[in-house]
Amino acid sequence: MVKRFLVFLIAAFMALSLFACSSGNTEQTASTPKVEEAAPSPAGSNTAPATTEQAKPAEPAPSQDASKAPDASAQAPSPANGSSASGAPAAGDTSKPAPAGEASKPASAEPSGSKTPAPEPSKSNPQPAAPPKQEPPAQQPPAQQPAPAKPDPAPAAKPEISPQGKKLLFVGRDQDPLPAEDQAIMDRLKKMGFSVTHSIDREFTADATKGYDMIYISQTMNSKFLKGGVMKDVAIPTLYVKNHGMFYLGLSSVEENTTVKKSKTIEIVDASHKIAAGLSGTVDVYKEIGDNFGVSYGVPGKEAKVVATVPGDKTKAALYYYDKGAKADNGYVTKARVSFYYWSNGMHENSTDAGWKLWDNIVLWTLQNG
């Protein structure tokens, strides 16, 4: 009877203890959200709250009723990380069985023995992130200006035509033997390299010029064979030492009386020209003066190129030429370069070195057919 009373007393005591533990766990569970809202304990604080049951000494239970008590450790679910909940008995406390209602108690939010620190909130109010600093827009490089167009290169200078082997038709008076001046001129042309063919004036025609590179009209030619413009359609460079030939083509405005007698000089008006050969000013072209000879001239049109004139009268051209395609004052267009040289009859023996130099140069200039 006494034993039963003791067992009943112990059972009542244990029920009161379990009720007290259950009430403490319920309050602890209910207060868990508030703990999360409060400032967490410092990172190094790992102390978990001790339960009331852990502070109480274990009391031995009667052997016949100990087996009837449910095993709380077998029924309580284990936390995910394998550590016991704070409401469960300590690992070493095997003498105290857990009541049947113990299994339904929620596990403590913080497992026993866990040392994982809670995140520490910032001590100051978080400031909004500063907007990224906007870089000033990159300056676009100035549009590259197109390189200025290069000027067209000057046309390459046409190589000078050499007289070597060039066929020249020499037209002079029909006389046997040939006039001495014609023979002297033909010999000089041959020395320059020309292949010279002589033609008498009375047999001269435009068809006779075909196949030649240059034509030379001597001062000995009878001008009547040039009348009618026999040379107007000939596209071969021609040198006239006869003013009448220039007049019949409209390249000079005077026909007769075009010799300044008792004169032995000319005036260089274009000293830079190749024909001038570096000569300038008044140049002696005859060794002496005479009553029957002098300086011949023409009165050319606007498109003529004048190199030398009669001294004191720039309208009377002693050395001049028309380029290929130039237009005479009467509208005639030259088919090739046409030049004029100032000699009168018999001047080959009276000519100075300067006079011969000018003659050589105008022959070569005419051949170029510019």
From TrEMBL:
Originating organism: Paenibacillus chartarius
Protein name per Swiss-Prot or TrEMBL: Uncharacterized protein
Residue span of region Disordered: 25-161
Compositional bias of kind Polar residues: 43-54
Sequence ranges of Low complexity compositional bias: 61-92
Signal peptide range in chain numbering: 1-20
Domain of life: Bacteria
PROSITE patterns hit by this protein: PROKAR_LIPOPROTEIN (PS51257)
Biased composition (Pro residues): 128-156
Tagged with keyword Signal: yes
Presence of the UniProt keyword Signal in the record: yes
Keywords noted in UniProt: Signal
